[in-house]
Write a structure and sequence with these properties.
Elements (H helix, E strand, L loop, with lengths): L7 E5 L3 E2 L4 H8 L5 H11 L2 H4 L3 E9 L3 E9 L6 E6 L2 E6 L4 E6 L9 H6 L11 E5 L5 H9 L4 E6 L2 H10 L9 E5 L2 H7 L4 E6 L2 E2 L2 E2 L6 H10 E12 L5 H11 L4 E5 L5 E7 L5 E3 H15 L3 H11 L6 E3 L1
Parallel strand pairs: 8-9, 8-11, 9-10, 11-14
Antiparallel strand pairs: 1-3, 2-3, 3-4, 4-5, 5-6, 6-7, 12-13, 14-16, 15-16, 17-18
Helix pairs in contact: 1-2, 8-9, 10-11
Length: 325
């Protein structure tokens, strides 16, 4: 007899409160739930103390054999809009909507799952050995974890305005605790940069509010202060959305502050636009030299730096033999 096709139907779109133990979860939903979903209950219970609330399962699906799939949940926290989802072994962070702010493959939690985060590491083509990276905007901490694991000579300071986001990153996205190399600061990014000049080799800005750049992180004053916060050969790295109506104005401001020493990479035609603004021009960089750097970095970090070179050629004015910034 041929196997019966598995059917799946949504049995509840009502938020299901889970402020109880995994055992209670099984008793409530039935003893035929697969063991791996007992872990899902545990994961929802863990951050109750850290976040000051409970955890809600957003959608529960039923299929043949009484197997449940926890696909989306959110923290219960006053004034919190943090949600998480899982699909195909990837956990995602959502802040106030369906847009994915951060993603982590559960089997390789320190890798860069999203294309835009990989592109942001393109600064290494211009500054291969940063001693200190300042990051504004934590999300799930993908870039933090990657640098922390792969670049042991680099110190990292992260500025995140939301203590709930920090707690979520540590509870659900494997963000390491603070150490001699890593410091996570709860503060507003613009204010932190204004009060900490000349501190970083690289300043990475990835701050959004409802799908748009945070106002305090895209003003002319912010970009001016960002340049002041960089060491002599420092690089500002900014994640913009190509569909953001203010993108062209943000680019004009960055170009003005950095005297035109600016390059871009696109993750896709209508996706993220990554901006690299150099405090001082490195002059003419031969494509041959950049390709050599890309090959070495690919071998060391397993990121597609050769593809980044192709993107630099495609989206920036250049000469046949060299890139002049």
């Amino acid at each position: 007899m041929p196997a019966q096709p598995v059917t799946r139907m949504e049995v509840s779109t009502i938020d299901f409160f889970m402020k109880f133990s995994p055992q209670k979860f099984r008793e409530t939903l039935g003893n035929d739930i697969k063991d791996d979903y007992e872990l899902a209950a545990s994961q929802c219970k863990e951050p109750i103390d850290a976040l000051g609330g409970g955890c809600y399962v957003r959608k529960i699906y039923w299929s043949t054999g009484l197997m449940f799939q926890v696909s989306r949940w959110r923290t219960k926290q006053q004034e919190s809009n943090i949600e998480m989802s899982e699909k195909d072994g990837v956990r995602a962070l959502h802040l106030g909507g369906s847009m994915i702010q951060s993603a982590m493959r559960l089997s390789t939690p320190n890798d860069l799952e999203l294309a835009y985060t990989r592109c942001m590491m393109g600064f290494l083509l211009f500054h291969p050995n940063p001693g200190h990276i300042l990051m504004i905007g934590l999300g799930g901490g993908s870039l933090v974890k990657f640098v922390y694991e792969r670049m042991p000579q680099t110190k990292i300071t992260v500025v995140e305005i939301s203590p709930q986001v920090i707690a979520t990153a540590r509870s659900y996205f494997s963000l390491p605790n603070d150490s001699e190399r890593l410091q996570v600061v709860t503060a507003e990014g613009g204010e932190y940069v204004a009060s900490n000049p000349v501190t970083a080799d690289i300043l990475m800005v990835d701050g959004f509010d409802d799908g748009c750049q945070v106002g305090t992180l895209c003003s002319q004053d912010f970009y001016n202060r960002a340049r002041e916060s960089l060491n002599k050969n420092g690089v500002l790295v900014v994640n913009l959305l190509s569909r953001d109506r203010g993108r062209e104005e943000y680019m004009r401001r960055i170009q003005h502050t950095f005297n035109g020493h600016v390059l871009i990479l696109m993750t896709e035609v209508r996706g993220n636009q990554i901006v690299f603004a150099l405090k001082h021009s490195p002059g003419k960089l031969a494509w041959e030299e950049l390709s050599r750097r890309a090959e070495n970095l690919e071998s060391e970090l397993a990121l597609p730096f050769s593809k980044f070179i192709m993107g630099l050629r495609k989206y920036n004015s250049h000469h046949d033999g060299y890139l002049e910034i």
